[in-house]
């Protein structure tokens, strides 16, 4: 007996045999029973979900001479037998991909006029109708709108958006759904019993998931697996044949995360790559695994996991030992890695770094519990007094050594002066307080430098358990010994002189503290202001010009920017402990250009070149430039300008009798 693939052998031949399309089958049955048949139908949906099969069953049923009470074809009348044998003259199937021209549609229109010889209707099933050309669609419109009474058109497509709106408006549209994994598994189990194949539920779920909602694909994969394994099909054989990554890898990987064992996690990832799996496919599967763990942990939503019962129990068991905070953070990291994968230069390093971050998620909350600010209503527990070896002088010395490295870091150079004069406090024997002015500064410090400073203090002071706590000034209520003068008195006055900037950046977060550091070193003492005035007194006009010229030389490659910053005059003004540099732009356009694109960089360059923090740049338009004559563009304007401003040109015109226009 000739072998027939399962997709053809077990193709449904009645409405009851359709898998996962019960609503459409019921609607078509009712329309046949009531005699309410439309002249045109459009079946839309993904591949392999039963669009063409439904069209064939529908065409067979409406031409059946003895349909059953539930509107199924009898299978014994002349119409049904001729259809089953492929010799029916009243049911026509066309492939629009190979018959997509105007001439093909004209031939179809000629056939439509011929009434059926057997049966009541001539049914035309046009598959992949979106492949018709624009001209073919237009030629088909009139026939589709007013076909003969005996003609019914059934159009099938996987790409509904390519169908002309004028075609859509003339058809009854039915949208087919993807077939669920449970329905595919149930059908495959039925077929395996008929074929005498022994296969487990886990293996069937792998095939169903690989089919992506298409029954035809699932049957094709089933045939491929049986050809590979024979009559005894195991789970390992299926994942090996279909090149599917085993669930066990993800369970083992999460166990590595829970144990903070990044070395085992990296080795496991290397093993996955050595088996030929795509790295992006691995990350996508890891995200799906964390999603299933979160769903399993909720309990009530476990029905969202389309897996066999044994795997659901394993998911629930692993999820019970993990916190929701860990699962959410791990899922966030894996999704972020997945989205950044294609744009990454070193894709393997990106994934390995993500795996190492996940290994730290379990232990991170326990490293620094002191940083969590307790509620106001709960007083902080008493902290033992500091040992004699940990004093303020030693703390300040180690602090200066630790923060010295920021002097050479380009992105944090302006932060250096703030660090050198930082206000510190010591609570007990294990907590060092670093006081900042506001929450914005606190957030930046904790996100960028707190961890490195804490590590340096631990090594320098020899205290492995030491914790650095970043606090807003006057936030703490516990007794704290201050290691540097508190500048609370001058803070308000300094804050009024600082221009606020939006956004979380080094410039906007730390500008206030840099100015305050330059102006004050002790509470209630104005010697800091006098020191600033002494420094400002030594700044001369030529110093500013020299710094300005060296700073703007880097714009020579951009002629427009270089012309804007090199053509004006630079002057300085000393006002209330600040240095204001005035630059005269040639016109309003140059002023706007400098303010929008160069102001921040120029101010940074002045602060660095003059070694003064309290420097601001004011851009003005030169008075002479505002009153200057407008530019001459037209030839007549140029001639007039030359006659008015050049005596030589006037004399030449008079001597030669010229009329310059």
TrEMBL record:
GO terms for molecular function: ATP binding; DNA binding; DNA-directed DNA polymerase activity; metal ion binding. Its EC number is 2.7.7.7. SMART domains: AAA. It is an enzyme of class 2 (transferase). Residues 37-180 form the AAA+ ATPase domain. GO terms for biological process: DNA-templated DNA replication. Keywords: ATP-binding, DNA replication, DNA-directed DNA polymerase, Metal-binding, Nucleotide-binding, Nucleotidyltransferase, Transferase, Zinc. InterPro entries: AAA+_ATPase, ClpA/B, DNA_pol3_clamp-load_cplx_C, DNA_pol_III_gamma-3, DNA_pol_III_sug/sutau_N, DNA_Rep/Repair_Clamp_Loader, DnaA_N_sf, HLD_clamp_pol_III_gamma_tau. SUPFAM superfamilies: P-loop containing nucleoside triphosphate hydrolases, post-AAA+ oligomerization domain-like. One of its GO terms (cellular component) is DNA polymerase III complex. It catalyses: DNA(n) + a 2'-deoxyribonucleoside 5'-triphosphate = DNA(n+1) + diphosphate. Pfam families: DNA_pol3_delta2 (PF13177), DNA_pol3_gamma3 (PF12169), DNAX_ATPase_lid (PF22608). DNA polymerase III contains a core (composed of alpha, epsilon and theta chains) that associates with a tau subunit. This core dimerizes to form the POLIII' complex. PolIII' associates with the gamma complex (composed of gamma, delta, delta', psi and chi chains) and with the beta chain to form the complete DNA polymerase III complex. Belongs to the DnaX/STICHEL family. DNA polymerase III is a complex, multichain enzyme responsible for most of the replicative synthesis in bacteria. This DNA polymerase also exhibits 3' to 5' exonuclease activity. NCBIfam families: dnaX_nterm, PRK05563.1. This is DNA polymerase III subunit gamma/tau. It comes from Candidatus Merdivivens pullicola. The lineage of its organism: Bacteria, Pseudomonadati, Bacteroidota, Bacteroidia, Bacteroidales. The gene is dnaX.
């Amino acid at each position: 007996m000739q072998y027939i693939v399962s997709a053809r052998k077990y193709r449904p031949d009645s409405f009851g045999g359709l898998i996962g399309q019960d609503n459409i089958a019921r609607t078509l049955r009712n329309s046949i029973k009531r005699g309410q048949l439309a002249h045109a139908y459009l079946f839309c949906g993904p591949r392999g979900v039963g669009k063409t099969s439904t069209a064939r069953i529908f065409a067979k049923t409406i031409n059946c001479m003895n349909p059953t009470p539930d509107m199924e074809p009898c299978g014994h009348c002349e119409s049904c037998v001729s259809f089953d044998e492929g010799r029916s003259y009243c049911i026509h199937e066309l492939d629009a991909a190979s018959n997509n021209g105007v001439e093909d549609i004209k031939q179809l229109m000629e056939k439509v006029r011929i009434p059926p010889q057997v049966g009541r209707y001539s049914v035309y099933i046009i598959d992949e109708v979106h492949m018709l050309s624009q001209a073919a669609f237009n030629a088909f419109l009139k026939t589709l709108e007013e076909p003969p009474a005996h003609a019914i058109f059934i159009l099938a497509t996987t790409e509904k958006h390519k169908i002309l709106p004028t075609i859509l408006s003339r058809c009854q549209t039915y949208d087919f759904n993807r077939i669920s994994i449970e329905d595919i598994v149930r059908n495959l189990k039925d077929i395996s019993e008929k074929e005498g194949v022994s296969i487990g539920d886990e293996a069937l779920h792998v095939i169903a998931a690989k089919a992506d909602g298409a029954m035809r694909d699932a049957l094709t994969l089933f045939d491929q697996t049986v050809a590979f394994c024979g009559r005894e099909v195991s789970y390992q054989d299926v994942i090996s044949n279909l090149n599917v990554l085993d669930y066990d890898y993800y369970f083992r990987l999460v166990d590595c995360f829970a144990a903070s064992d990044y070395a085992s996690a990296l080795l496991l990832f290397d093993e996955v790559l050595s088996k030929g799996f795509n790295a992006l496919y691995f990350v996508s599967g890891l995200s799906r695994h964390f999603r299933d763990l979160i769903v399993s942990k909720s309990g009530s939503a476990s029905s969202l996991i389309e897996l066999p019962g044994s795997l659901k129990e394993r998911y629930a068991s692993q999820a019970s030992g993990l916190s929701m905070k860990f699962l959410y953070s791990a899922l966030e990291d894996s999704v972020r890695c997945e989205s950044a994968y294609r744009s990454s230069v070193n894709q393997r390093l990106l994934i390995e770094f993500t795996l190492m971050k996940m290994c730290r998620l379990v232990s991170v909350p326990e490293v620094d519990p002191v940083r969590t600010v307790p509620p106001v209503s709960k007083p902080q527990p008493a902290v033992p007094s500091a040992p004699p070896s940990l004093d303020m002088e030693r703390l300040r010395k180690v602090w200066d050594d630790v923060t010295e490295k920021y002097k050479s870091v380009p992105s944090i150079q302006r932060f250096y002066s703030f660090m050198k004069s930082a206000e510190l406090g010591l609570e007990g024997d294990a907590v060092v307080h670093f006081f900042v002015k506001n929450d914005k500064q606190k957030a930046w410090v904790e996100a960028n430098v707190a961890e490195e400073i804490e590590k340096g203090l631990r090594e320098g002071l020899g205290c492995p358990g030491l914790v650095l706590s970043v606090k807003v000034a006057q936030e703490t209520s516990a007794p704290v010994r201050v290691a540097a003068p508190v500048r609370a008195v001058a803070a308000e006055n300094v804050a009024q002189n600082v221009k606020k900037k939006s956004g979380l950046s080094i410039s906007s977060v730390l500008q206030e503290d840099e100015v305050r550091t330059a102006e004050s070193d002790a509470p209630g003492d104005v010697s800091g202001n006098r020191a600033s005035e002494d420094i400002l007194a030594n700044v001369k006009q030529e110093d500013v010009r020299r710094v300005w010229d060296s700073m703007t030389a880097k714009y020579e490659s951009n002629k427009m920017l270089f012309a804007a910053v090199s053509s004006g005059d630079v002057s300085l003004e000393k006002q209330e402990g600040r240095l204001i540099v005035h630059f005269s732009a040639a016109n309003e356009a140059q002023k706007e250009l400098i303010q929008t694109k160069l102001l921040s960089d120029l101010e940074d360059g002045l602060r660095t070149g003059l070694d003064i923090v309290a420097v601001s740049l004011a851009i003005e338009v030169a008075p002479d430039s505002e009153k200057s004559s407008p530019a001459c563009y037209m030839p007549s304007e140029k001639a007039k300008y030359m006659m008015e401003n050049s005596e030589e040109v006037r004399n030449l015109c008079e001597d030669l009798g010229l009329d310059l226009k």
